[in-house]
Amino acid sequence: MHRTLLGLTALAGLLVSPAALAQADGCGPSNPNAVRGEIVGLKDRTGRLLVELFAPTDDGFLKGDTRSQEHPSALRRLWITPPATGPVTVCLAAPSAGRYALLVTHDRDGTPKFSVGKDGLALPGTTRLGRHRPQLVETLINVDAAGRPLTLRMQYLKGLAGFAPASDQ
What we know:
The protein is mainly β. The chain is globular, with a radius of gyration of 17 Å. Helices cover 12% and strands 33% of the residues. The protein has one domain.
């Protein structure tokens, strides 16, 4: 009987959706200092999403290996496989309360390099990227015990106009 319960518990752990795992990554009620939100405007549900939290300085923001989609300077990083349907929620534990930069990328094609024509990205707020690289000031958020949820709207390349949310395409 005890073995059966252990086996069922292990099987249940395998059945947890990626979105649920993303929410469980150090983000329980015992950790009020977390980035919580919903990623909206996905072009499709292929590939993976990368959520990265940076120190709020130009020194580390988007610096590092330009060949890789991951930035070594990120304080926290979370990969999410989008669920086939339903909302894409994220919860990423911050080191402490304070100001951080947040960036989400949608790796649609599975390559380790950001593909401008295929992949997308999201910033907090309503800034439309257009043809410029994300600036630190556009990605800043405050993490505190209030835990206000964010809406992170994905943007994809829209011809010569540059990056725009799917609703603007």
